[in-house]
Amino acid sequence: MRSHHSSPRRPWPRWIAIACGVVILARAGFGCTELALRPDVTIGTANPTAIDYPLGASICRLFNLDTPRHNMRCAEEPSSGSIANIEALRSGEFNVGIVQSDVLAAAAAGRAPFASRGPATNLRVLFAAHDEMLTVVARRELGVRAIADLRGKRINIGNPGSRQRADIESVMAALGLARGVFAEVRELPPAEQNRAFCADELDAIVYSVAHPNGLIRDVTLTCGGILVEIAGPAIDRMLSEHREYERAVITGGIYADNPSDVRTFGVRAVVVTTSHMPEATAYEITKAVFENFDAFRRLHPAFGTLTTADMIQRNGRVPIHAGALRYYHERGWVS
User: Fold this and answer.
1) Topology given in CATH for the domain delimited by 14-131+268-331
2) Of 193, 210, 183, nearest to 301 (Cα)?
């Protein structure tokens, strides 16, 4: 923990709180850490190009606007992602981390890649955020409407180790689709698969992303891509066996020539801390986001469709932190 509540100190001027928040719009190697070397709240995010980084920066921006009142400061930090954030929470390097729901479930249960350390029993949830949905895009002229229609087609399943690779392989297993049923299977990362799709070297490509997404916008607008639904009895059975996944819908109209909602599934980004965080700190982080909810939703396109109901994790395997729960009770969102 980096909190230092034992001795009083003067509130920081409001310009410092605002400056820390502006980082989300203009951060280029400069952030709250330079202004306050010992922040009270440090949020582990992800690679700066990933959506979890602006999520952490958005939380800090809103939290720091109230620094003169609660006398605490927040800084976001890049990281290698969910697994690294769990380890940093356990070691105390970070006191908040952004973690995908499947990784969080694995950590809580002590499954791989956390099996050697056993279950992380002190993890606590503050709130959830955006979905990262498995998204399949196919060539419009092929008439593909469901995953099963991709038999005999040229597909990309994502680079080894990527989330989209793990997700599409889960779908293939659920539907009984071996690699041999496809005309060609490639293993390209997202940017390369877009190039191959637009060059007519592939019939279908996959992503696991929050929406709207720039790569998908490009491939639907300029290369005739259409979103493919991932649903049906086999997918229902898969989701019932893997509770870390959630049903999701890609809203119709956010991509060119894709006017209808498309059913799929994915994982959710979850803002996590530990039982060591003081109740008052967890309360203030939660309050900062929900008391400024309209502003929060404007800070990134992927946050724009979120509702408060989306963000309250009532039935997860990891308990809600007492400080967050206190705020939810005050708002009447939980009984």
Assistant:
1) D-Maltodextrin-Binding Protein; domain 2 (3.40.190)
2) 210
